[in-house]
Amino acid sequence: MCxxxxxxxxxxxxxxxxxxxxxxxxxxxxxxEERDKVVDSLRTTQEQLEETRNKLTExxxxxxxxxxxxxxxxxxxxxLFFFSLFTTLLINVRLIC
Length: 97
Fold this sequence. Notes:
The chain is mostly helical. It contains 1 helix and no strands. The chain is rod-shaped, with a radius of gyration of 41 Å.
């Protein structure tokens, strides 16, 4: 006796491979969409970082300018403070005497 193998329908094989191919294509589409989202997010983050760096640079320049003004005017402020203090002391001494 001869054992006969059941026939394999080529239609069912091609349907299965067709479904697998469709799943693979959908997976690829999803991956590409996610990649695009990540790239957009990266681009946005890089732009925000650049803006933040520019603001930091501006603030550092302003700080340096304020320190220069402070150092330039500090002796005058000290002189005015001591002059005011000295004048107040003289007035008080005159009031006492």
